[in-house]
Q: What sequence folds into this?
């Protein structure tokens, strides 16, 4: 029935026009567009009626390594609308890229988006990036999965798809991108590859320096971990082999060393130092190593004369209650997002 409804929308001439209005209290109705096929229409995640999930398919990533609650080839896109989303108004959009191993449509992400945007006229969109997609077009896509063109999926399909189906302000000046951990890498990588799309970029504990040997080892490890998705994939699948002279793709796609395209864009980085390394040592060390990649990126931004916001909140004690500077800590991430949204309200085009 959902596909029939989408087809009816096409027949009624709604595609390419102003996004169709849903019944009062219902989420928006989406139509296929820009290479994405809607396989499940939006449904509210709860009674607050601010956040919904729409599920699509794309030939750019026809199948992928799945984690729990995922169906290979079906891509969940979670959207949080402003609490004043009304006809006659259009809104700026923040795209937020999840970390590894995570999904876009989690309760934690929903709460972060909704809490940070209370009273803020901003749409937040979180697309699927898979547990190990790494927000890039893969060097060697496994035959069992088909092409893994995550970058093409997100930049060339998801963004215009959202503009076609929601009341967005479809311009660079009204669009931002952010991400956590793996998603922080993705946000900077996408902003550097397509500065024509984004006016602001934010990284929350992102792994930003692909020349860092520890980060290379961690990314290579994600290809082999069942917890990052099944099936596992060859070590060289994503960026190629991480050793000279076969590491050209690693070097070319490292955000830290290619900050030039960010000139004229708002730039923000948030990271802790891990705090007490004996307390939750895995998350502590992970954050500490993320800090190292952020410091390299900051140095390149300074050398290039690119203005930016860099917040190293250390052990988190002065950043947010419950934040102890660990990686993927909800209290830290919430504080990151609240600060970033305040920047966006001052710099993005407003309704």
A:
């Amino acid at each position: 029935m959902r596909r029939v409804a989408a087809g009816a929308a096409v027949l009624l001439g709604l595609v390419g026009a102003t996004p169709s209005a849903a019944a009062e209290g219902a989420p928006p109705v989406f139509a296929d567009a820009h290479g994405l096929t809607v396989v499940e229409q939006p449904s509210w995640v709860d009674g607050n009626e601010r956040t919904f999930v729409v599920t699509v398919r794309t030939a750019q990533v026809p199948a992928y390594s799945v984690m729990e609650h995922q169906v290979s080839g079906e891509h969940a896109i979670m959207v949080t609308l402003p609490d004043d989303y009304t006809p006659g108004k259009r809104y700026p959009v923040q795209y937020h890229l999840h970390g590894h191993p995570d999904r876009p449509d989690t309760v934690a992400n929903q709460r972060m988006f909704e809490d940070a945007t209370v009273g803020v006229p901003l749409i937040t969109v979180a697309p699927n990036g898979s547990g190990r997609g790494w927000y890039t077009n893969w060097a060697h896509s496994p035959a069992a999965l088909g092409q893994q063109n995550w970058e093409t999926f997100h930049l060339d399909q998801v963004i215009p798809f959202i503009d076609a189906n929601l009341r967005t302000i479809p311009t660079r000046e009204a669009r931002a991108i952010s991400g956590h951990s793996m998603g922080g890498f993705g946000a900077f990588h996408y902003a550097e590859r397509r500065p024509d799309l984004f006016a602001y970029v934010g990284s929350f504990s992102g792994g930003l320096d692909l020349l860092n040997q520890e980060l290379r080892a961690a990314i290579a490890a994600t290809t082999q971990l069942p917890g990052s998705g099944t099936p596992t994939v060859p070590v060289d699948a994503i960026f190629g082999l991480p050793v000279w002279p076969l590491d050209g793709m690693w070097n070319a796609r490292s955000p830290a060393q290619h900050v030039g395209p960010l000139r004229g864009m708002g730039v923000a980085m948030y990271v802790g130092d891990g705090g007490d390394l004996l307390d939750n040592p895995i998350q502590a060390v992970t954050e500490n190593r993320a800090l190292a990649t952020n410091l390299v990126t900051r140095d390149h931004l300074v050398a290039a004369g690119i203005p930016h916001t860099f917040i190293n909140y250390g052990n988190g004690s002065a950043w947010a209650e419950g934040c102890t500077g660990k990686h993927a800590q909800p209290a830290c991430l919430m504080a990151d997002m609240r600060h970033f949204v305040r920047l966006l309200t001052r710099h993005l085009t407003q309704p």
